[in-house]
Amino acid sequence: MERDGKMAVCAARAITREAGWPKARCYTPGKMQPTSLTTDPQTLTAAGPAAPTTGFAISGLSGDYTLEITVQALSSASGTPKARVVLEDTVNGFTNAVPVVEMNVQGPLNVPITHLFRSDEVPSLRIGVASAMLRLNVYELDGTSPSITVHGAIWQ
């Protein structure tokens, strides 16, 4: 949709807002720098956490942040592959992990899909809390011989 022929496009590829619509929000990482949460790229053939499975320490972080989940590819030998990708945090070594944000995708995909989540959309993230860790986990991966390539990051 266009309004007076103008469209503002965010640096975050998949997020757009129309110029002149006051309630539309457009978030970009701006001058933030990404820190990868995964060994890049991470390809999984079964549900489970992406490496490193111990997560990334967020206990020493503070301030504004953006969380990123990118599915670079999703396939299966036959049928329709589906995946549920979650960023989860913990303060006890993922014994009791808490899902923070998630992305559900259906494939096959061979073009990356990125979802960004700003700090005001994810106020429950335990950033700055003692022993807090963050990791990417594929909760569900369905299909015949499925494969997913994922990336997670925190921008600050």
Could you characterize what this model shows?
By secondary structure, this protein is an all-beta fold. The chain folds into two domains: 1-28, no CATH class; 31-155, Jelly Rolls (Sandwich). It has strands spanning 8-9, 16-17, 34-36, 42-44, 48-49, 56-57, 66-75, 78-90, 98-106, 113-118, 133-144, 147-155. The strands form three sheets. Strands 3, 4, 7, 10 and 12 form a five-stranded antiparallel β-sheet that branches. Strands 5, 6, 8, 9 and 11 form a five-stranded antiparallel β-sheet that branches. Strands 1-2 form a two-stranded antiparallel ribbon. The model is unreliable at 1-26 (pLDDT under 50).
Distance between the termini: 32 Å
Task: List low-confidence stretches.
Answer: 1-26
Number of domains: 2
CATH first level of the largest domain: which class?
Mainly Beta
Percent helix among the residues? under 10%
The average pLDDT value, as a whole number, equals 84
Whole-angstrom Rg: 17 Å
By CATH, the architecture of the largest domain is named Sandwich
Q: Given the structure, what is the number of helices? A: 0
Brief digest:
The protein is mainly β and 156 residues long. The protein has no helices and twelve strands.
List keywords for this structure.
0% helix, 156 residues, mainly beta, 5-stranded antiparallel beta sheet, Jelly Rolls, 47% strand
Q: How are the SSEs ordered, and which strands pair?
A:
Elements: E1 8-9, E2 16-17, E3 34-36, E4 42-44, E5 48-49, E6 56-57, E7 66-75, E8 78-90, E9 98-106, E10 113-118, E11 133-144, E12 147-155
Antiparallel strand pairs: 1-2, 3-12, 4-12, 5-11, 6-11, 7-10, 7-12, 8-9, 8-11
